[in-house]
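RECORD TYPE: inverse folding
INPUT: structure tokens
STRUCTURE:
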């Protein structure tokens, strides 16, 4: 009977230790089936401070940079994304740790002075004890660990979206730099032509020397502006390198800014529905699940934990005459013990429940606030996109053609002595401002689209 009871107790302990909640199974499965394992695999091979490749030259990307290639490189080399992946990995491993029971205790006792009994002196004792929390606590703790794993999974997805957004913004900034340099270089070439005409007139005493000097001053100013832009390139390449995780060469270039017609934004209701389900919102929901599991655990704090023990005592020969020895002297003693804790600290258990319920309420409020923040960002980026589209249409179809026509007419009038140099320079500046405004609007459109796609967690073109 005693043996059966012991086996039943051990079976109960084994069942508790092997129990796994559905949330834990779901999170483990989500990690194992993830499509981004190469990030962690690469980190496992060398690590951020690994020795692999330490003596190899640093990889550098140069030439004409393609956005798709940079996105792929960032998925492989971004320390930020790798860190988020490894945090997710650690939280999934933590599910197993959460259900760990206290370590078993083994005690060996050697009696300096033996305890005399009728059957002989107790010379030494071996004792093995194991404490097992009640099943409700273990399940609640596993649910908390699963909630943390869910939060880290959502954090990884949010990091991936944020990384792509940051990459596109830095890439567009580099495109904008190239576009501004190209526009200003074209204007420099135009002013060079005007300077040649004025220099010929000055030589023929048909124009004052001051006119040539004015053009030369304007040329130097523009060349200085171009040089300033070029000197910004290493800093912008470094900013792009920080996002990609791979060094970008200082002389790297990008394709021209897109000149496609701006797309019509998807229905606002559909975008809002996607925004309120953003991974950052899912991360906050995971914190709600964690707090709810803490509430469950606080309820199980009123239930005792269990203790199982096994004790073996070695009994020696009694120090009495042989004739007086009992028939069963010197037999070792074996004992099995079962115990439980007494949760008598009522005020502590009540406080645990109050804390857990307050944390759950706070987590729910943070979910609502996160959704409000994302809706506000959505509205702001929709405005930015639509306003940039409006400016592109305005400058592309109206302002820029007129600025070009004005400059052409003023240059013809200047050649025919019907306009002065001031008119030409003013027309050149107006054209420069218009072209710069157009490329700025195109860059703003691309940035707004990148931010919108980060908010809705998908390509805008795929939303039907």
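DESIGNED SEQUENCE:
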């Amino acid at each position: 009977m005693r043996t059966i009871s012991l086996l039943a107790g051990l079976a109960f302990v084994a069942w508790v230790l092997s129990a796994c909640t559905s949330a834990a199974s779901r999170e483990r499965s989500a990690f194992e089936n993830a499509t981004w394992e190469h990030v962690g695999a690469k980190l496992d091979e060398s690590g951020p401070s690994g020795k692999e490749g330490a003596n190899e030259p640093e990889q550098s990307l140069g030439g004409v940079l393609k956005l798709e290639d940079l996105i792929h490189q960032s998925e492989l080399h971004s320390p930020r994304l790798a860190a988020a992946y490894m945090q997710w990995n650690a939280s999934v491993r933590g599910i197993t740790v959460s259900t760990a029971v206290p370590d078993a205790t083994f005690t060996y006792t050697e009696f300096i002075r033996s305890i005399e009994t009728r059957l002989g002196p107790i010379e030494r004792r071996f004792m093995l004890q194991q404490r097992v929390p009640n099943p409700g606590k273990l399940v609640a703790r596993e649910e908390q660990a699963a909630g943390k794993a869910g939060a880290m999974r959502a954090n990884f997805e949010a990091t991936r979206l944020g990384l792509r957004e940051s990459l596109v913004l830095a890439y567009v900034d580099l495109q904008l730099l190239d576009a501004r340099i190209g526009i200003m270089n074209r204007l420099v070439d135009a002013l060079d032509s005007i300077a040649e005409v004025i220099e010929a007139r000055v030589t023929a005493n048909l124009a004052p020397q001051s006119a040539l000097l004015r053009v030369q001053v304007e040329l130097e100013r523009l060349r200085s502006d171009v040089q300033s832009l070029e000197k910004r390139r290493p800093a912008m390449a470094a900013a792009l390198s920080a996002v990609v995780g791979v060094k970008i060469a200082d002389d790297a270039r990008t394709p021209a800014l897109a000149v496609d017609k701006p797309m019509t934004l998807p229905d606002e209701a559909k975008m809002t529905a996607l925004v309120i389900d953003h991974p950052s919102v899912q991360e906050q929901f995971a914190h709600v699940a964690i707090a709810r599991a803490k509430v469950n655990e606080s309820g199980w704090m009123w239930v005792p934990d269990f203790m199982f023990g096994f004790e073996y005592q070695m009994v020696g020969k009694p120090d009495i005459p042989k004739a007086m020895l009992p028939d069963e002297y010197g037999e070792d003693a074996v004992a099995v013990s079962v115990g439980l804790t007494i949760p008598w600290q009522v005020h502590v258990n009540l406080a645990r429940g109050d804390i857990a319920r307050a944390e759950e309420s706070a987590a729910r409020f943070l979910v609502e606030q996160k959704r409000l923040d994302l809706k506000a960002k959505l509205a702001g980026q929709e405005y930015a996109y639509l306003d940039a589209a409006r400016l592109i249409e305005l400058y592309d179809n109206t302002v820029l053609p007129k600025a070009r026509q004005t400059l052409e007419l003023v240059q013809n009038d200047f050649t025919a002595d019907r306009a002065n140099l001031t008119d030409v320079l003013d027309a050149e500046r107006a054209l420069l401002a218009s072209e710069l405004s157009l490329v700025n609007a195109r860059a703003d459109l691309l940035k707004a689209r990148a931010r919108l796609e980060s908010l809705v967690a998908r390509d805008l073109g795929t939303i039907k």
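NOTES: The first strand starts at residue 60 and ends at 61.
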